[in-house]
Predict the 3D structure of the following.
Amino acid sequence: MLADDSIDVKKPSLFDKLYEIVKEFSRVDKKYIEPQHYNYTVMLQNTNTYESYTLRNKEGQEIVLSPEPSVKIGPYVGWRWLVLGYTIDVSHLFESHHKQDWDISLYSNQVGIDLFYRKTGNDYKVRRAYLGDNISTDNLRNVPFGGFNASIKGFNLYYILNHKRFSYPAAFNQSTCQKISCGSPLVGIGYTKHSLSIDAEKLYGLIESRLGYDSSKLNMDSSLVAAKVNYTDFSVSGGYAYNWVFAKNWVAAASLSLAIGHKRSTGDMEHDGFRLRDFSFRNFNLDGVGRFGMVWNNTRWYAGWSAILHSYSYRKSQFSTNSVFGSLNIYFGYNFGNR
C-alpha cells in the first residue's frame, strides 16, 4: 500500500486577502522610510484657522470679507493610524459667533483624504473694498459686517505615486520618518459644495454710515451686493510633493496640487423689485490645494507644524468669487507601546 505524500494546502480566506491588501498600503522601502514602531500616541496641538472671500462684479467693484482667525488648543490620543482629539476655541471663549468648522485629514503611504466643513458665524469684517477710482474706502477697512453668510463642505482624495519611498505621513501625521529626501507626483479627485449670500441693505447702510456716500449714486451692481449663490464643484487634480531631510530626524515638506473644477451653480439676484432666476451655468475654473510642514521626529518624541490651504474660484461674466481657507497646526507629542 502506497503512502499518500500529498500536502493539503489551505487556501487563503477572504479575510486573509483583505488583510494583505491593507498591509500593502503600509509597505515601504526602509532605506527611505522608517516605519512606525509604536501603537499609541498622545499629543497637544494648537490649531489656527483662516478664511477669506473676495466678491467681484463685472464693473470691477470688489469686497474682501474675512473673520478674525480662530485659535484652538487641545489634547489628542491615537492608536496606530486613528488619532482623535478635542480643541477649545480660546479666541472666542466668551463670544457667541455661531461658527462651525472641522477638518479631518487621513494619510497612508498610498492614499490621502481631506474632509472639511465650514459654516460662517457673525464675525466677518470688511478687509478691503473697491467701489470706483475716485472713492476712498479706507474707513471700511476692518469694520464688522454681519450681512454675509457662507458655507463649504467637501473632500479631496489623492493618490501618491511614489509611495514606497516618499511618505506623506512622515510630514503630516508623524507616523513614519523620512530618512532620505524624496518626492512624488500626486493625482486626485475632489468634491465641494459652496453657498454664499450678502445682505444688500446692511451693506448699503454700512457704506453710507462709514463713507458718507449715498449708496444709490455708487452704481453698485446688484450681482455684488445682493447675490445668493449655491454651487457644486467636481474636480480632477495633479501635483507634486517633496520631503527634504535637511538634518537627522528633521524633514521639511511642501506639496501643491492644481485642480480643474467643473462648477454647476444656481443663484438669485434681486434688485429694485426684479428677480433674475436665470443664473445657472456650467463652467470650468482652476482650484488649488497647498500643504506645508516641518517636523522633528526621533520615533519616540516628535514636534513640528503643518499647514494646509484651499483655494476655490467661481467666475461668471456678471459675478465672480474666490474663497480661501486653511489651518496651521503646531504640535508636540509622544509615542509609546511597542508594536
Notes: The chain has one domain: 31-338. The longest strand covers residues 250-271. The longest helix spans residues 200-211. The chain has four helices and 19 strands.
